[in-house]
Amino acid sequence: MSDLIRIENLKVYYPVRSGFFNRVTDNIKAVDDVSFSIKAGQTYGLVGESGSGKTTIGKSLVGLEDPTSGTILFDGEEATTIKQKKKLNYNKDVQMVFQDSQSSLNPRRSIGEIIAEPLKSFGVPNAIGAGAGDKRSFDQDAIDKRVLELLEIVGLPARTVTQYPFQFSGGQRQRIGVARALATNPRLIVADEPVSALDLSVQAQVLNFMKKIQRDFGISFLFISHDLGVVKYMTDNIAIMHNGRFVELGTTEDIFNDPRHIYTKRLLSAIPSLDVSKRDANRAYRKRVEAEFAENQAAYYEQDGLRARAYDLKQITPTHSAALKKGEA
Ligand SMILES: Nc1ncnc2c1ncn2[C@@H]1O[C@H](COP(=O)(O)OP(=O)(O)OP(=O)(O)O)[C@@H](O)[C@H]1O
User: Fold this and answer.
1) What CATH code is carried by the domain that includes residue 117?
2) Ligand 1, atom 31: closest residue by C-alpha
3) Hey, whose CA ends up nearest to atom 4 of ligand 1?
4) ABC transporter domain: from which residue to which, for each copy (predicted)?
């Protein structure tokens, strides 16, 4: 399977200004040299604590943030420098679903207007799932038809078009966000904590629905979350982030069955178990991990300007990971 998107050595630094002349005195390294790729029809998970840089990566992919350096290749073409005409296609192909559906949907606009917005910017695709080669059209009838089609896909009734965001529950609003993201037939959706604001039963509904649209339309996802249970359920591959860097990456199965990095081990050992028979074993494992961490803490942390730069290890690439497995690294 080929890579749909490939991110190489991505860095996003935010300047920190201070002093009388408001000069740049430092940088916040929100994303610090990360590389990964997502295959067509697959889901890639980004996991890490708050502030580790997950959202910044997502925003860079959809063009809401300009990378300081690095390359984003979409379908083999450089998205970061794609000429204007092609960029229009890229923007259409890569969409985002946000965590907070309350503030990401304009409260003054009807649902019909919200979903029609991307259709007015990028045109109405020929057919759902048609992918590239869509014709642009500003025909209001075509837009109305497409909006109804999208509402049907996300399981909302036609009367929704005239209603407003406040009239819906969190789960329904998230579906509206997905309908808007699907409007242009994207090939990649960046889903930033799409269910963390929802209660558990609604979470399951939205997650299953996302899996369904992936099966139906072959969409790839970049799935950002700090909930490891959700990530395990949704993703094929995962990168574990800490302080702007990837400390470990691999297949979801490998990371969960055989975590290599102490930070990953700590994250996984913190998942509470519902299985009473495993509680003692889990507690013992957590104790071992914490002891390992405490012993090596000094080596893991060093002061780096504004923030403690943790785990300043070389990035574990898939090749490195394979070598580790064979005992060559
Ligand atoms: N526009 C900005 N200007 C300055 N610093 C920023 C900006 N956006 C993000 N940051 C900083 O970059 C770092 C990474 O932020 P980011 O939102 O990507 O983290 P995150 O892992 O998505 O966190 P969360 O899980 O809380 O959403 C943080 O230290 C944050 O304060």
Assistant:
1) 3.40.50.300
2) 51
3) 14
4) 5-268
CB 143 within 8 A of CB 150: no
Query: Within its chain, how far is the Cα of 145 from the centroid?
Result: 30
DSSP 239-306: EEEETTEEEEEEEHHHHHHS--SHHHHHHHHTSPPS-GGGHHHHHHHHHHHHHHHHHHHHHHEEEETT
User: Does the beta carbon of 60 sit less than 6 angstroms from any atom of ligand 1?
Assistant: no
Cβ of 177 closer than 6 Å to ligand 1, yes or no, is: no
Range of the domain at 229: 3-261+313-325
Ligand 1 nearest-atom number relative to CA 48: 21
Higher-pLDDT residue of 222, 120: 222
Give the sign of the dihedral formed by CA 120, CA 123, CA 127, CA 129.
negative
Is 48's C-beta closer than 6 angstroms to any atom of ligand 1? Answer: yes
Average pLDDT, the chain: 81
Closest residue to atom 29 of ligand 1, CA basis: 51
Band of residue 202 on the pLDDT scale cut at 50, 70, 90: confident
- Is 73 a domain residue? yes
* Residue count (the chain): 329
- Span from the CA of 145 to the centroid of ligand 1 (angstroms): 39
Let me know if residue 282 belongs to a domain: no
Q: What is the pLDDT of residue 326?
A: 55
pTM of the model: 0.81
Distance 28 CA to ligand 1 centre (A): 9
Ligand 1 pocket, 52 CB below 6 A?
yes
Ligand 1 atom nearest to CA at 59: 18
Percentage of the chain lying above the pLDDT 90 cut: 34
**Would you call 21 exposed, middle or buried from its count of C-beta atoms within 10 A (0-12, 13-18, 19+)?**
exposed
